[in-house]
Amino acid sequence: MKKLPWYLLLILFWEAAVKISGVSPLLVPAVEDVLRALARDLTQGDLIRQSALSVGMIAGGIAVSFVLSLILAYLSQMHPALNGFIGTVTDIAHPLPGLALMPLILLWFGVGDGAVFAVIVHAAVWPLLLNLNAGTLAVPAVYTETASMLSMSKSGIFFRIRLPYALPYVIAGLKTGWARAWRALISAEMVFGAIGLHGGLGTYIMVKRTFMDTAGLFAGILVIVMIGILVENGLFRFLERAALDRWEV
Amino acid sequence: MQKISPRKKRIRNRTRAACVLLFALFLMISGVAGCAAHPAKTKIIIGYQFGVAYAPLEIMKMQGLLEKRLPEADIEWRQMGGPTPIREGMLNGSITFGFMGISPVLIGVDHGMPWKYMCGISANRVALVSCREDIDSLADFGPYDRIAILSPGCTQHVLLSVLAARELGDAKALDGQLVSMTHPDAMNALMSGTEIAAHMATPPYIEEELAQGMKVIADGEEIMGRPFTFICGVAMTDYVRENGTTYELFLEALGEAVDYINEHMEEACDALADVYEISPDALYAQMTYNGTIYSTSLAGVPEMARAMAQCGFISEVPPYDEIVFDNVKKEMP
């Protein structure tokens, strides 16, 4: 809410700049045209369906990435050889942008939802794994040694001591994973949108571009911004507070 | 009067400065959009696409036909992957003359794009080709059978929608099954037995697909009920008003290129073989394929506009004489 005046000021400046410069609405539409396009596509068009598709896809992708990173973190802490192997794969894959892998992903997964899903998982799994590893290894030795002395198994130590301790790291990993995956998803949808086999907000923007609906294109960007703000400032803030209260970390 | 502390005063001043800067930035963006790249009057940038349908432009470029007429002008040729970047380039002033299918032009007109048709350059056959024995009409397509088109809103998409409205009762019935692909990719997909069951193809791909034992399900000319221009030229209304002589000379040069192709087809193919990286004989076969015509006359735009309006691509049929320049009006019957 603290930023609300700034949002309003931005909108005001946008509107005033369009009106004063007399720029073509095909290049920069006025605020009211964008809002009208947004209302039209929300009520009569398929903006809600496309948004739901993108959000559903990313939620599924992040859930799969989380489970995958959990398995990889568990395995890498069970055996030094596995740790070395998984660490090397992470070093190679983490800096690779998902879009750079697109030709390979297309080759392996074909055109369609499978490829978009692969791009999301690739974007989210590595930062999640790095944070999980950092968090689970940051547990003070006194806890793990005590648990060992009480005959707790390696798996027990991982799931009952290391993992709860790593919660703030997990949330930080989820935030990074989400940010990377959201950008990758929209980019992938724009690529696949051009192909036509996948919906989503990226596709919506591409279709608006093709059919020269600049106000609709702005409306799509606005929805992407709104979802981004809602997740980052709403969902993650809530998760962080909930984690703080629950575990008092 | 309440005294303001120096700190608060500083913050207030900074906030004001930030607001002024922000506003200036917005003004700059909206002011710069569309005029930053406006070429000087002597600069002519031609935006066109790939394929033999654009052969007259390649001849024009190769023989320097525009340079002969406009020796002072700085001429640039830009090949682009589709009509959308050309349209955007024309809107922001970075392309002077654009060449594309006749339908994207109508989509632009429908959204208030200030441009008009200036000429046609070529017409060729368009056909829906299927690799599947069990498909003889649109009704035979299953929900998982995909149809390859060039891009949404392209002439092939419009033709398919017209056919879907006629045969299936809904112009958008197959929209969820369309896949955008380049012609070579679509042909490869058909041949390798993927989910692509049909391809809205143009020469030489129609011929190559038929040679593989595939079949034509529908023909563009039959769908539209008459021959129509496939690739046309467009220019912005303001540009033509302000640069009438350049426009006339451009059309004259294009006309000479079209005449050269029609009168010296073999020589043209010899010259263009390197451009298209195929043998002159193969190029000759493509450029003389049944239904391929090189002509500056524009045909079939009103019919295409009506079809597009019926299928929901555009909101209304624009009056023909308002979307063509005077030289095209003179051709009207």
Task: Give your account of this protein's structure.
The complex is a heterodimer of chains A (249) and B (333). Chain A is 82% helix and 0% strand. Chain A has 249 residues and is mainly α. Chain B has helices spanning 6-32, 55-62, 65-69, 83-91, 102-110, 155-168, 183-191, 205-211, 220-224, 237-242, 244-263, 265-276, 280-287, 301-310, 326-329, and strands spanning 43-48, 74-79, 97-101, 115-123, 127-130, 146-149, 178-180, 196-201, 215-219, 231-236, 293-294. In chain B, the strands form two sheets. A six-stranded mixed beta sheet of chain B has the order 2-1-3-10-4-11, sandwiched between helices. In chain B, strands 7-6-8-5-9 form a five-stranded mixed beta sheet, sandwiched between helices. The interface between A and B is medium-sized, with 28 and 30 residues.
Walk me through the topology:
The complex is a heterodimer of chains A (249) and B (333).
Chain A: H1 4-21, H2 31-43, H3 47-78, H4 80-93, H5 102-109, H6 113-137, H7 141-149, H8 154-165, H9 167-195, H10 201-210, H11 214-247
Helix pairs in contact in A: 2-11, 3-4, 3-6, 3-9, 3-10, 5-6, 6-8, 6-9, 7-8, 9-10, 9-11, 10-11
Chain B: H1 6-32, E1 43-48, H2 55-62, H3 65-69, E2 74-79, H4 83-91, E3 97-101, H5 102-110, E4 115-123, E5 127-130, E6 146-149, H6 155-168, E7 178-180, H7 183-191, E8 196-201, H8 205-211, E9 215-219, H9 220-224, E10 231-236, H10 237-242, H11 244-263, H12 265-276, H13 280-287, E11 293-294, H14 301-310, H15 326-329
